[in-house]
Amino acid sequence: MEILGLKLLLLITNFSILTYVLMLVIHHYQSNYDKKSWAFLFHILTFLWLVFRGLFWLSTLTSLMKWSSAIFFVLYWMPTPLEFGAFMLLPLYFAQILYPIEWKKYWTYVRPIYFGLTIGIFLFQSIWSYFKPPPTQDDHLHCENVVDDYIAEKCFRTEGSTNAFREITAICFLFLAFIQCWFGIQILKMDKYRYEQYFITSPEILSIVNILLVISFTSRSFYQIMAINQLLILPDIPLQPYDGDVQIAIFVACELWIYIPTLLILLTFTSRTMGNILPSSK
User: Fold this and answer.
1) 148 Cβ neighbours under 8 A, 6+ residues apart
2) Exposure of 31 by Cβ count < 10 A (0-12 exposed, 13-18 middle, 19+ buried)?
3) C-alpha span between 141 and 27 (Å, rounded)
4) Helices (H), the chain
C-alpha cells in the first residue's frame, strides 16, 4: 500500500495546530481572559477552519465516500472566508493601536463591515455549493483504476467549474496583503516606549513576520489571478486514498498560504509565552 507522505504531513500539521489552538482557547477560559479580545476571536475562527481543513485531508487519506460536489466545496473551499476573517484581525488590531482616537469613533462602523463581509462570503459560498450545477466531464479529477461512471460522479477538480471562489479569494487576500503591509510599516515607526506597551516581540522579528505574511497573502492572491486567466494551475488533489499523494507544489502552497501564516500569528501575537495577547477591541 502506498504511503501518502505529503497528505499525511499536511494532516499532522493541521491537527497539531488545531490542538494548540484548542489549548489556547481552554487556557483563555480558565484564566477568565476577555472573551471579546482579538486573540480569542482569532482562535475561534482558526479552530473552525482547521476543523474543515482537517476533515478534508482526513477524507482524502482514509475515506472511500462518494464525493458529491457539495461535500467537496464545503470541505475544500468553505475554510477560505474563515481564514480571511482570522487573518484580517491582525491589521485591525494594528489600526486600533495606531489610531486610537479614530478607532473609537469608527469602530461602530468597522465592526458590522468586518463581520458582514466575513459572514457574507461564507454564506455566499455555502449557497453556491448547494445550488452549483453538477460537474461536467472536464470538472473531475483523473482518478485511476475506476470506471468512467465512478469518475464522473465522485471526482472533482480542485478548482471546480467556476471562477467565483477564485475571484473572491484573489480580491480578499490582495486587500489583506495591502493593509497588512501598510499597518505593519506604521507599527515599526512607533517610538520604542509605545511599541513596548503592546509587543514583547522585538521590532526585528515583527518586521520579518510582517514580510512573510505579506508574501503569503500576495502570492495567494496572484496565484488565483493567474489561475483565472489560465496562466498557472496547480495540480489536482487526489480525493481517494488509492489515487495517490498530492504533488509537492500542492504541499508547498498549503504550507505557505495556510499553515505558516497561522503559526506566525499564533506564536508572535496570540501566545502568552512569546508575545502580548491581542487586547480587547473595545
Assistant:
1) none
2) exposed
3) 43
4) 5-30, 38-62, 69-77, 79-98, 100-131, 148-154, 164-188, 192-198, 203-228, 248-254, 260-265
pTM: 0.85
- As given in the structure block, the three cell numbers for residue 228 are 483565472
Give per-residue pLDDT as tens, 130-181.
Answer: 666 544 444 444 444 343 444 434 445 454 446 788 899 999 999 999 999 9
Q: Which of 55, 239, 63 minimizes the C-alpha distance to 144?
A: 239
Conformation bin of residue 32: beta by default, left when phi > 0, alpha when psi is -120 to 50: left
Q: What structural domains does the chain harbor? A: 5-270 (1.20.1070)
Q: Give the span between the Cα atoms of 201 and 196, in whole angstroms.
A: 9
Is-contact 7 246, C-beta < 8 A? yes
Q: Convert the pLDDT of each residue in 250-276 to its tens digit.
A: 999 999 999 999 999 998 887 654 334
Q: What is the DSSP letter of 53?
A: H
3-state secondary structure of 60: helix
> What's the sign of the alpha-carbon dihedral 240, 223, 160, 74?
positive
Report the sign of the C-alpha dihedral through residues 66, 68, 74, 76, in that order. positive
CB count within 10 Å of CB 233 equals: 12
- A 10 A CB-CB count for 151 gives 16
